[in-house]
C-alpha cells in the first residue's frame, strides 16, 4: 500500500469545534447572538426545570381534586376548585381580607415611609444613625414579630394589651381577640416592620434627585411646597411605584405574623389567602385546592406587576425629554 | 505459564474480597431515622439514645420537629415513597389517615409473632386502641399516652369554700365563683383560638357533656342537640370565667395562664402536669392538684385519651423494618417506658409503670392518669381519615361563637353541612 503524500499535504485541515460552532464566514452579529444563546442555555435550562415546570405542573393540579393522602379520590374537576374559592365562605373571607390588608398596610407604609424619607433626606450623621436604627425591624423575622406583638398585646398581662383593656382603649378580648380590630392590628404590626424598608427605597430615590435642580428652583423663587410638587414628586414617581409594587407583592403573601398571633381568627377576621393555602396544602394535603389558591395569587401578583410596569413605562415615555 | 499465573491471582483476590465483604456485613450497624414530635418524649428519646443502642444494637438519629413540620415532612416522605424516616411518631388523631393511606406497615403480624415478650395485658386497652388501632389494624404501637385531666388551684378553692368539682356543672359554678376580674383572677381557661386549638378543647368538653362529633354509623352529627348545648356551655365558660385573651389562646397561652396563676382551673393533657410543680416555670407550685376531668351530670364518665404511637414506614427495607420493630419493642416495654419517664417524657401506656413506686413518688398525679385510662376514650376526637378537615371546620364554627357571638346552633348547622361534603 502506498500513500500519496502530495495529496495529503494539499488537503485542507478539518475545522475545529469552535469553527464549526462559529463559522468564520458568518456575520459577526449572528455569531455573537449564537454565542450569547449558548452562554444562557444552562441558566435557561435550570429555570425551565426548577421553576417553569413546577409552576406549570402546580397550575395543572388546580384543575384536579388531588390529595396526597387520599389518592383513591383523585379526579379531574375542571374549575371546581376555583369556583369553591369564591363560594366557600372561608375562602371568600380570605380573598377580602387579603385585598383589604394589602391596600391598608401598603398605603400606610407608603405614607409614613415617604414622610420618614423626607425627614432623613439631609445627609447628616444623626440621620444616618436614625436610619440604621429604623432598619432594625426589617431584620426581625415576621415570625418573631408576631410572637413579640402577641406578648405585648395580650389583654391579660401584655404591657400594651393590659393597659389598653384597663383604660378602655381596646375591647375586653384585646386588639387581636376582637374581630373588629384584629386585622387592623395585623396591619399595624406590618407597618411597624416594613415601613423602614419603604423609607429606605424612597430615600434612595430622593438622594438621586440632582441638588442643582432644586437649588435652581429655589433661586427662581419656588417655595418648598412648589419644589416638592413640581420637582420631587414627578422625579420620584418611578421609585414610588417600585416601592409600592414590592410591598404589594409581599403583603399579598402575609402569613407568619398571622399564623402565630391569630391563626386566621377570630372568626375569620384575619383569615388570608396564604393561611388558606398553607392549611389546604400542608395540613389537609389538598393539593388541588391549594394550587387553585396559589394560581389565583399568582394571577393577582401578575396583574399588579404588569400594571405597575406599564405605568412606569408610560410615565417615563411621557415625561422623558 | 503466564495465563496460569494471572488466573491464580484473580482467584485469590476474589476470595479475599468475598471474605472481607462477608465479615463487613456481619459487623455493620444500623442507624434509623426517627421523625419525632417536639413533645417532651422527643428530647427524652434523644437523651436515652445511647441506652437504646446498647439494648437493641440500633443507633437512632432523632429528628425533633414542631407539629406542622412533622406533618409536612412525614407526609411528603410517605407520598414520595422516599423512605427518609424509618420510625414516625403518630398523633393518635391521625390513626385513620395512616390506616387508609398505606403509608406504614400493619404491626399486627409482628405483635402476634412477639406477643410473648410484649406483655400486652400490661397496656391499657383504651390506650392500645387509641394510639394506633383502627379497623383491625395496628398502624402504630402505643408509645406516649396522655390523659385529659383537670388541674385546679387548691388554695383558691379552699379560700372560696369549694370542693373539687365532681361534675361539669360544679366546675362551671366554681370557676365563676372564683373569678375576680378586678384582681385579674379568673376561674377557668381553655383554648379559644380559631383552628385546632379551640376545636380540640371544645371536643373534649363536648364529650364530657354527652356530645359526640359522629353518629352511631360514623357519619357527622355535629349539630346534634347535645353538641349545641355543650357549645353554649363552653361559651358561657368563656364569657363568665375565662381571661379576656383566652379567645385567642392556643396551648401555649392556656398553659401559661394557669402556670402564672391567672386561671384557677384548666383541663389539660397530663403530659404537662409536671411543669406546674417546677418553680422555674410555675407560680403555682404547691398550690394545685390534678384530678379526673368531671363529666356532665348524669353522663357516664369517660376520659379523653390522646398521645402518640410509633409507626414503621412501609417504604424502608425489611431489615430496617425489623430493626425499627426492635427499637419500638424496647421503647414501649416497661423498662423503656420507665427510662423515658425518668428523663421527663411525661406520657404513659403501661399499668405497671403507672404503679411504679419510684415514679409515683416523683409524679404524685400518676394514679389520676391510671384511673383515666381505665375508662379512656380516644375517639372523642374522631380518628377517621377526614379528621383534619373536620377539626378545621369545628375550629371555625366554635371560634365564631366565642369571638363573633354567632348562634351555637347556626354555627354547628353550618359546620354539619360542610362536614357532610367530606363523605
UniProtKB/TrEMBL annotation, chain A:
GO terms for biological process: transmembrane transport. It is found in: Cell membrane. Its main location: membrane. GO terms for cellular component: plasma membrane. The chain crosses the membrane at residues 34-56, 94-121, 128-149, 197-216, 228-249, 284-312. Pfam families: BPD_transp_1. Keywords: Cell membrane, Membrane, Sugar transport, Transmembrane, Transmembrane helix, Transport. InterPro entries: MetI-like, MetI-like_sf. It is a multi-pass membrane protein. Residues 95-306 form the ABC transmembrane type-1 domain. Belongs to the binding-protein-dependent transport system permease family. This is Multiple sugar transport system permease protein. The lineage of its organism: Bacteria, Pseudomonadati, Pseudomonadota, Alphaproteobacteria, Hyphomicrobiales.
Automatic annotation (TrEMBL), chain B:
It comes from the Bacteria. Keywords: Periplasm, Signal, Sugar transport, Transport. Pfam families: SBP_bac_1. Gene3D superfamilies: Periplasmic binding protein-like II (3.40.190.10). InterPro entries: Bact_solute-bd_prot1, SBP. Its main location: periplasm. It is found in: Periplasm. The keyword ATP-binding does not apply. GO terms for cellular component: periplasmic space. Residues 1-27 form the signal peptide. Belongs to the bacterial solute-binding protein 1 family. This is Multiple sugar transport system substrate-binding protein.
Amino acid at each position: 500500500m502506498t500513500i500519496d503524500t502530495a495529496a495529503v499535504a494539499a488537503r485542507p485541515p478539518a475545522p475545529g469545534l469552535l469553527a464549526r460552532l462559529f463559522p468564520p464566514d458568518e456575520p459577526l452579529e449572528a455569531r455573537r447572538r449564537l454565542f450569547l444563546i449558548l452562554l444562557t442555555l444552562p441558566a435557561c435550562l435550570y429555570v425551565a426545570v426548577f421553576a417553569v415546570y413546577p409552576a406549570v405542573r402546580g397550575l395543572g393540579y388546580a384543575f384536579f381534586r388531588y390529595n396526597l393522602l387520599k389518592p383513591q379520590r383523585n379526579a379531574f374537576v375542571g374549575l371546581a376548585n376555583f369556583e369553591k374559592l369564591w363560594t366557600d365562605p372561608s375562602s371568600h373571607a380570605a380573598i377580602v381580607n387579603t385585598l383589604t390588608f394589602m391596600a391598608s398596610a401598603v398605603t400606610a407604609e407608603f405614607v409614613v415611609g415617604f414622610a420618614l424619607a423626607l425627614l432623613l433626606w439631609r445627609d447628616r450623621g444623626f440621620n444616618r444613625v436614625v436610619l440604621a436604627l429604623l432598619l432594625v425591624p426589617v431584620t426581625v423575622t415576621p415570625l418573631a414579630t408576631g410572637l413579640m406583638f402577641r406578648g405585648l398585646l395580650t389583654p391579660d398581662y401584655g404591657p400594651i394589651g393590659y393597659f389598653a383593656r384597663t383604660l378602655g382603649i381596646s375591647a375586653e378580648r384585646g386588639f387581636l381577640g376582637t374581630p373588629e380590630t384584629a386585622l387592623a392590628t395585623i396591619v399595624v404590626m406590618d407597618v411597624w416592620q416594613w415601613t423602614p424598608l419603604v423609607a429606605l427605597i424612597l430615600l434612595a430615590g430622593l438622594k438621586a434627585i440632582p441638588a442643582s435642580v432644586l437649588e435652581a428652583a429655589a433661586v427662581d423663587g419656588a417655595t418648598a411646597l412648589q419644589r416638592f410638587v413640581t420637582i420631587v414628586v414627578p422625579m420620584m414617581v418611578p421609585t414610588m411605584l417600585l416601592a409600592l409594587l414590592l410591598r404589594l407583592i409581599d403583603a399579598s403573601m402575609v402569613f407568619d405574623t398571622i399564623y402565630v398571633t391569630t391563626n386566621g381568627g377570630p372568626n375569620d377576621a384575619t383569615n388570608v389567602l396564604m393561611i388558606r393555602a398553607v392549611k389546604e396544602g400542608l395540613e389537609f394535603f389538598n393539593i388541588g385546592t391549594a394550587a387553585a389558591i396559589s394560581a389565583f395569587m399568582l394571577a393577582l401578583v401578575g396583574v399588579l406587576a404588569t400594571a405597575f410596569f406599564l405605568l412606569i413605562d408610560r410615565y417615563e415615555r411621557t415625561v422623558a425629554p | 505459564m503466564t495465563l496460569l499465573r494471572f488466573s491464580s491471582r484473580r482467584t485469590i483476590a476474589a476470595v479475599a474480597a468475598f471474605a472481607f465483604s462477608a465479615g463487613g456485613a456481619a459487623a455493620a450497624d444500623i442507624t434509623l431515622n426517627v421523625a419525632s414530635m417536639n413533645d417532651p418524649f422527643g428530647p427524652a428519646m434523644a437523651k436515652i439514645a445511647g441506652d437504646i443502642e446498647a439494648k437493641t444494637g440500633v443507633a437512632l438519629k432523632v429528628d425533633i420537629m414542631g407539629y406542622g413540620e412533622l406533618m409536612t415532612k412525614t407526609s411528603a416522605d410517605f407520598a414520595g415513597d422516599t423512605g427518609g424516616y424509618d420510625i414516625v411518631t403518630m398523633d393518635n388523631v391521625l390513626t385513620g389517615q395512616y390506616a387508609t393511606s398505606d403509608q406504614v406497615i400493619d404491626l399486627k403480624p409482628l405483635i402476634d409473632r412477639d406477643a410473648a415478650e410484649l406483655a400486652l395485658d400490661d397496656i391499657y386497652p383504651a390506650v392500645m386502641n387509641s394510639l394506633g388501632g383502627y379497623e383491625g389494624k395496628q398502624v402504630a404501637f402505643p408509645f406516649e399516652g396522655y390523659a385529659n385531666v383537670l388541674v385546679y388551684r387548691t388554695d383558691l378553692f379552699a379560700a372560696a369554700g369549694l370542693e373539687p368539682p365532681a361534675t361539669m356543672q360544679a366546675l362551671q359554678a366554681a370557676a365563676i365563683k372564683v373569678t375576680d376580674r378586678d384582681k385579674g383572677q379568673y376561674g377557668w381557661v381553655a383554648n379559644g383560638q380559631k383552628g385546632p386549638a379551640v376545636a380540640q378543647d371544645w371536643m373534649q368538653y363536648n364529650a364530657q357533656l354527652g356530645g359526640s362529633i359522629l353518629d352511631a354509623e360514623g357519619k357527622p352529627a355535629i349539630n346534634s342537640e347535645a353538641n349545641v348545648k355543650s357549645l353554649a356551655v363552653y361559651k358561657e365558660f368563656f364569657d363568665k370565667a375565662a381571661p379576656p385573651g383566652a379567645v385567642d389562646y392556643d396551648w401555649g397561652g392556656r398553659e401559661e395562664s394557669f402556670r402564672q396563676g391567672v386561671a384557677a382551673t384548666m383541663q389539660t393533657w397530663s403530659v404537662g402536669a409536671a411543669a406546674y410543680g417546677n418553680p422555674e416555670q410555675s407560680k403555682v407550685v404547691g398550690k394545685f392538684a390534678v384530678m379526673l376531668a368531671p363529666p356532665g351530670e348524669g353522663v357516664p364518665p369517660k376520659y379523653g385519651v390522646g398521645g402518640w404511637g410509633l409507626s414503621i414506614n412501609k417504604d424502608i427495607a425489611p431489615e430496617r423494618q425489623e430493626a425499627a420493630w426492635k427499637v419500638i419493642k424496647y421503647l414501649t416495654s416497661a423498662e423503656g417506658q420507665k427510662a423515658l419517664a425518668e428523663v421527663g417524657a411525661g406520657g404513659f401506656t403501661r399499668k405497671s409503670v403507672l404503679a411504679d413506686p419510684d415514679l409515683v413518688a416523683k409524679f404524685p398525679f400518676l394514679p389520676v392518669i391510671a384511673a383515666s385510662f381505665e375508662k379512656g376514650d380516644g375517639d372523642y376526637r374522631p380518628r377517621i381519615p377526614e379528621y383534619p378537615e373536620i377539626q378545621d371546620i369545628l375550629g371555625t364554627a366554635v371560634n365564631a361563637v366565642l369571638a363573633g357571638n354567632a348562634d351555637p346552633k347556626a354555627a354547628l348547622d353550618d359546620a354539619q353541612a360542610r362536614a357532610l361534603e367530606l363523605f
